[in-house]
Structures are given as structure tokens and as C-alpha cells.
Design brief:
alpha/beta; TIM Barrel; 18% strand; binds zinc ion
């Protein structure tokens, strides 16, 4: 009898010394939070220990009783998701906004971005700036300039076509340019619309040799299937996908090859817009489900990812920037930009919509659903700051449109967390919530699985293990407002 009482006492003490007084030196303990992992889904009442920039431990709160001397954050009623990615941004598009973009991304919970087009010295500047202070800045991946053929579209000839691209005349030029970009430590390559098929083949060949991915717009001289078969890893904006999903896709291809040949003397921007005007509406009117099915099966087989930039593509009709919450974000832009964006949004909103605008809008959203059903991976990207899309906030808008197009809230979250990490082969480090991963996380006040707009309820940004409270983030935004 006495023996068993002693045993009970001993085991009680052991139990308590193991569980009641756990102390994690130099760590942050987020207690009683609901974890929303893009792979494993929702689990409530969890405790997460962050140490040395990483997730040290995750356990049910009732099994991990903390010594009160720990640095404890109460997560009761709150939700933890991985830090978000915007997989399509341009630091080099608007010079006056660029110096604010890192802060804007960060304060809206965007802890990583993929810049896919800009002069190498400009985009590298922001990548390096962010690397100098990784606990306070988002992670920046860069492609360098758009690799375009001749005439190149983004040649700096007019304000809406800043010099984001290099115009490459020959296959050898492609080779040389990629060699020089590799010495600048680019993270991927971006192919553009005026490349010839031979030049495009060189881009994908060199990319494989250098271990880089190729994203971009399907060149106008090619169709989607041949671009995918040539090794294009991802496609932006569903650009030129409509041309390959039409019943008359073969005629459209030969027509635009003629237009490309005849338009050599024009600027790239004029020529490209002539081709889109001649073909896009025609293609949408001749959209053929069985042709599209064939195309999407090839994309699925080749693992050719899609970044639909739906917020941008549907903005003509959906007008996200008319919303007061969106307009409020304009105050974080330079005063002149705020003024001109407000005026332009107002006059833009009054433009009448054509039947084609409406049909194309529908087509884009249906196509995203179709792509998703074909199990082709999608990444959330916005093209900010193009088209009144405030860096940071625009990613949350993208998630909303993805859900409207037919993704579940969890699937939408995956497009901005796990998928971009997997794209860069760093999913072992980032993009989901498990022990050992880099602690890039967001604490939200409301559940994004109930309503995807709740990703905007950012309570705390955690970057490389450092916590930034709402007050800290608001102070940083206020400083932009006063600049
Ligand atoms: Zn872009």
C-alpha cells in the first residue's frame, strides 16, 4: 500500500517536472493558437515555440505546459498561417513607388516576393537591401529583365512600357545575356512574347543547364503546347492561353506569325497590342472545351505552373480599387501618386464595359477553375504596382478572386504559401507550419478558412523568428503616409 502511494507521488512529480515547468530559453512561445497549415489544414489549441528564427516545437497546448517565465504570447482566438508570397511583382515598374514596396509588402503580411521583370541593377538593389535586414524585410527572388526578342515590348518608349526588358536579336544574344544574369545571382528567368522559337529553345536549354526555372508569357510565335514541351516551367497571366484553346488555334498561330513578320518596323508595344487586338476576342469567341482540355492535359503532364494574376486580369470589370479599403491604401504612396491614382480610378470606373470585357472576365475565372481541376499548380501573384494595385494589399485581393473563381479557402492559401516555396525548391524550409521550418508566419485575428478576406486581419507578422506587432506595423505604415 505504502509502496504504491510512493510510486504515485514519484510519477506525479515526474509528470509535472516534465510538463508543467518547461522553460525555453531565448524563445517565443505562442500558446493556444489555431494553426492553419496549407497541407494539414486546421488544428486548434496548439503551442508553437520559435527559437533562432525557426519553429522549434509544435504541440497541443494541453500537453506542453509552459513555465510562466517563458516569453509567452497568448494566441487564444487567433489563427496562425505561413507568411504570404506575392509571386508576381515589379520593383522597377514605377520609380516613385519602388522605395516603399518592401515596407508595404511586409506590413500587409507578404514575407516573400518574386520579382519577375526589371533592369537587373534595380531589382538586385532591392534583393540585396532586403537581404541586409532579413528579420525586418521580405525575402526577394528576382528574374532580372524580361528576355524579349526584337522589337522588345518593354523598351522604355512610353510610360506604360518602362525599360523592363532586353531586346535580343539572335540566339547567341540569348546565350550571352543568360550567362551575364547568372553572374548577378538571378533566381529564375523570364521569357517574353517577341522571342522566336529558336531563341525560346535557347532560354529553356540554358535555364536547365544553370538550374533555373523559366517563367513568362508564351511567345507570340509559338503555341502553349510547344512552349510547355520546350520546358517552360510556368506561365503568367494565362497570357496567350486563349489563342491555343480556340477551335481555330492553328489559323490564329499562322496569322500572328505573319503579323509578327510584317510588323518588324514597329515598336514592340504597338506590334504586340495589334496582335492581341486582332486575336484575343476572336479566340475567346472560338473557345473550344475539347481543345482546351488537350492543352491543359499537356500543362499538367509537363508540370507547367500557372500564375493567373486574376486580380489584375479581372480588374477592368471587377474594379477592386473602387472599394474604400483599397483606396485607403493609396495614402501610403507618394502624395502625387495617391492623387493621380484616385483621379484615374474615378475616370476609369466610368468607362463603359463591352460585351467582350464581360465575356473575357468570365473566361478568365472559368479557366482558373479548369486549370485547378486539371491539378496544375497555381501561384498567387498580382503584377503590382501595375493598374492601381497597391503592393501588399493586392495579394489579399488576388486570394479573394481565386476563391471566387472556385478554389477553396485552403487551396487559395496554398497558392500563396506552400506552392511558391515548392516552386523554388525550398518547401523543406518554408511555406508550411512544421518543426524545423523558418519562422515566417502571420497571426490573424479571424479565420481565413471561414472567409479568405480574413487574411487581411493581420495581428502580427513573424519574419525569420522576429515578431512585429500590429502597433509596430501601423507605425511603419504611418511613416510612409508622412513621407
Ligand atoms: Zn508582370
Amino acid at each position: 500500500m505504502r509502496y504504491s502511494v510512493v510510486l504515485i507521488i514519484i510519477s506525479f512529480c515526474l509528470f509535472h517536472s516534465c510538463t508543467n515547468n518547461v522553460m525555453f530559453e531565448d524563445a517565443v512561445c505562442v500558446q493556444n493558437i489555431t494553426i492553419i497549415d496549407p497541407i494539414d489544414g486546421e488544428s486548434s489549441n496548439q503551442t508553437l515555440i520559435i527559437k533562432d528564427g525557426r519553429i522549434l516545437k509544435i504541440a497541443p497546448s494541453k500537453e506542453l505546459l509552459l513555465d510562466p517565465k517563458n516569453n509567452i504570447i497568448d494566441g487564444t482566438g487567433k489563427f496562425l498561417i505561413p507568411g504570404l508570397w506575392d509571386a508576381h511583382v515589379h520593383f522597377d515598374y514605377l520609380e516613385e513607388i519602388a522605395p516603399r514596396m518592401l515596407d508595404l509588402f511586409f506590413c500587409y503580411g507578404i514575407t516573400s516576393v518574386r520579382d519577375i521583370g526589371g533592369r537587373i541593377e534595380k531589382v538586385k538593389y532591392y534583393k540585396d537591401l532586403a537581404l541586409e535586414d532579413p528579420k525586418n524585410m521580405p525575402r526577394v527572388k528576382i528574374a532580372g529583365p524580361l528576355l524579349d526578342g526584337m522589337p522588345n515590348v518593354y523598351d522604355g518608349s512610353r510610360p506604360q512600357n518602362p525599360p523592363l526588358s532586353v531586346g535580343l536579336a539572335t540566339v547567341q544574344d540569348v546565350d550571352d545575356m543568360i550567362e551575364s544574369l547568372v553572374t548577378e545571382d538571378v533566381d529564375l528567368l523570364k521569357a517574353y512574347e517577341m522571342l522566336t522559337p529558336d531563341q525560346f529553345a535557347k532560354v529553356t536549354e540554358k535555364a536547365k543547364e544553370k538550374g533555373l526555372k523559366v517563367t513568362g508569357h508564351v511567345p507570340l510565335s509559338m503555341d502553349v503546347i510547344s512552349a510547355s514541351n520546350a520546358g517552360m516551367n510556368s506561365m503568367e497571366h494565362l497570357r496567350n492561353l486563349e489563342l491555343s484553346c480556340a477551335s481555330n488555334s492553328v489559323e490564329l498561330l499562322s496569322q500572328r506569325q505573319t503579323l509578327l513578320f510584317d510588323g518588324k518596323g514597329d515598336t514592340g508595344a504597338v506590334l504586340r497590342s495589334r496582335i492581341h487586338t486582332a486575336q484575343r476576342q476572336n479566340a475567346i469567341e472560338n473557345y473550344d472545351e475539347s481543345v482546351a482540355d488537350k492543352v491543359l492535359n499537356v500543362l499538367a503532364k509537363n508540370d507547367t505552373w500557372q500564375i493567373p494574376t486574376l486580380a489584375l486580369n479581372t480588374a477592368r470589370v471587377e474594379k477592386p480599387f473602387v472599394k474604400s479599403t483599397f483606396q485607403e491604401s493609396f495614402k501610403y504612396l507618394p502624395v502625387e501618386t495617391e492623387k493621380s491614382w484616385k483621379e484615374n480610378v474615378a475616370s476609369f470606373s466610368e468607362l463603359p464595359l463591352s460585351e467582350f470585357n464581360i465575356n473575357y472576365n468570365r473566361w478568365l475565372q472559368d479557366m482558373v477553375k479548369n486549370i485547378h481541376e486539371h491539378e496544375i499548380p497555381i501561384m498567387a501573384g498580382t503584377d503590382c504596382p501595375i493598374f492601381f494595385l497597391t503592393p501588399g494589399l493586392s495579394l489579399h485581393t488576388e486570394l479573394e478572386v481565386l476563391v471566387r473563381a472556385g478554389l477553396s479557402t485552403l487551396e487559395a492559401l496554398k497558392t500563396a504559401t506552400y506552392n511558391p516555396a515548392k516552386y523554388f525548391n525550398i518547401e523543406g524550409e518554408l511555406g508550411s507550419i512544421s518543426e524545423g521550418k523558418i519562422a515566417d508566419l502571420l497571426i490573424l485575428n479571424t479565420n481565413p478558412l471561414d472567409n479568405i478576406s480574413n487574411t487581411q486581419s493581420v495581428n502580427t507578422v513573424i519574419k525569420d523568428g522576429k515578431l512585429h506587432s500590429r502597433e509596430d506595423l501601423d507605425r511603419r505604415l504611418e511613416a510612409l503616409d508622412k513621407m
